[in-house]
Amino acid sequence: MLHLLACLVAIQVPIEQPPRLRTILDNGAAILVERVPGAKTLAIQFLASSRGTEETPTTNGLRHLLEHLAAKGPKGDIDEKLETAGGFLQAETLREAMHFKLTLPAGQMALGIRTIEQLMQMPVVTPEMIQREAQIIAQESALRDDASKLSAAAWTQAFGDKGLDVMGNLDVIKNATPAMLNKIHRLQFSGPNLAICVVGDVDLDATTKACSEVLSKAPKAEVTKYVRGGAAGGSVAADGAGEVIGLPVPGWRSPETAARVAAAFALASESDNSFVIYTPASNAGMVLLGRLGLKTGLGKVIENAKAAELFANGRSLAKAWVLNMMSTPESVAEFRGMLLVQEYDLKPETILENLDAMTPKDFASALNAFRSPGAIDVVGK
User: Fold this and answer.
1) DSSP structural state of residue 219
2) Whole-angstrom Cα distance, residue 363 to residue 250?
3) Which of 82, 130, 154, 213 could cross-link with 246 by S-S, CB 3.0 to 4.6 Å?
4) Helix pair 307-324, 349-357: axis angle to 10 deg
5) What 8-state DSSP symbol labels residue 245?
6) pLDDT tens digits for range 352-364
7) Strand, coil or helix: what is 158?
């Protein structure tokens, strides 16, 4: 009998976990954990969707201000605790979400969970704190690079009040009150607006459970998808040396979005010092093709472009862009987290599938869109 038991134990095969596990909690919060065996770092992305707190002329910049305050933690010591353990936190406010990026040494999941608990708390805010952070945001605004300035102008030209610069209006920020920030916090940090994405050498079940215990504390609330609507074309001048051609695109799932991203990368490859900006979004957005300098010649590059010659290169460059965003635990967590917080089933692979299915005709149509009246031309002053 003992011999038989020994044989049974010897032939048991350990059950391997799948590479990725997605969980949706009862309050609507989402968790995605991806295991990367042997990863030296632990990447944790905590995101709070802007649904219900989108920028308006009277609130423009309040989310950015709240992000600054939340990133410090209720006792103002988050950075110190992370640095002591060899980790760090980056925070940013995007159109679609408030984004907290934690990078930790492998095995520091418990510290990551404690940090998220602190980030979820509404900090005690005083008028003095608001004015101090307003000064910091003003300094950030003054130091913005030309590409950022031109891109912000393109968004406002295209979408008007639904494309306001998330850096914020400094007057609105300076006149903020604790009550205003508290209202935004209650909405933005409700269950359906929250997501955590963890990538590293972790156990899927244990990590999901730890994240669930934190996010399940967020209140359940009704949130509706924000519809940005159609975009206007046209030309506009803006601060910054360079030029940006902005092209409106549908959401992440759309084959048209994939084709226009491919066209942008193909055009950028035809000109030195050119860049492409597109933030994955389920909502209508913008693909931005830019070139820095006083005389960019970007219009001529677009005018002379031949779809047949650029098709293969455009698809290859666009696919390389996607794959590059899935090359490290940090980039995987950021990419998948940004999609997850917008819609539960959005995934990076969708655009790869659309790029593979893209035809020369689709690409030519996307290239021609950069020459159409629907494109936005922003020229630096």
Assistant:
1) P
2) 15
3) 154
4) 160
5) E
6) 999 999 999 999 9
7) helix
